[in-house]
Amino acid sequence: MRTVFYFCIGTTVASFACCCGYRLGKGQAPWSPRRSYCDNCGHLLASWQLIPILGWLLQGGHCHYCGNHISVFLPTTEFLIGIAAVLLCNGSSYPMQLVYLLALATLTILACCDFFYCFVYPIFILGLLPLAFSHPLSWSITEVGSAFFLLTIIFILVIKYQGLGSGDLYFLIMILIVLGFYPTIAIILLASSATLLLIPFSNTKVPFIPGLAFATIIVLIYLKQKGALA
Ligand SMILES: [Zn+2]
After folding, report:
1. CA 159 from chain center: how many Å?
2. Rounded to an integer, what distance in angstroms lies between the CA atom of residue 151 and that of residue 204?
3. What DSSP line would sit under 172-217, residue for residue?
């Protein structure tokens, strides 16, 4: 029963975060207009069309009114965040559950903005900061040196080759602060692999933040299942 509850909470958080990310990317306030609408025909959506995952399935992936295609990114994200919420919240104390849900919402907003508009609002990365309370932070001299070296390489990539955006750099600095050196390396490797796998299927630039967000969730789940997180 608790699993179903966490899954529903996760899918709802993802649905709301996707809406926020999508509207912010268009320069709109997340709360205005209050009701969600079809981006193509402008028709306000009925309550049943807003149910996470089910709303998309019941409409067959197309707007009920104009038939416009609705991106599969939305139900896929809702499903994955639902699963992640179950795995992170089960066995966690009350304040930590909120920390994980905030982190999932933050990662979804960032991924959504970058996926649809290829940019992120750096201020939203602060939503990951409470993750620092999920485990005791301890840095050895080797880790500090390696982290500095890693950030220098990323900084050069951003400035000189523009292979990465400044949003990617801010994101990785935050991950370094809240999760430490080795989880950050795992996240970079996983995100790079996931992004490289997508390149052959895309004829436009593939944004990196969705890969980083996906990798961060996988690493968080791994650390949680290992007992390394509260
Ligand atoms: Zn429509």
Report:
1. 25
2. 27
3. HHHHHHHH-HHHHHHHHHHHHHHHHHHGGG-SSPPPSHHHHHHHHH
DSSP state of 139: -
* 26-77 per-position pLDDT tens digit: 888 888 777 888 989 989 999 999 999 999 999 999 999 999 999 898 999 9
Handedness of CA 212, 80, 112, 72 (dihedral sign): positive
The whole model's pTM is what? 0.90
Contact in structure between 18 and 108 (CB atoms under 8 Å): yes
| Cβ atoms of 71 and 63 closer than 8 Å | no
The Cα–Cα gap between 22 and 110 comes to 10
Rounded alpha-carbon distances, angstroms, from residue 9 to 15, 72, 105, 133? 10, 20, 11, 22
CA of 59 to the centre of ligand 1 (A): 11
CA 68 / ligand 1 centre spacing (Å): 6
Give the Å distance between the CA of 62 and the centre of ligand 1. Answer: 8
The residues spanned by each domain of the chain are 2-225
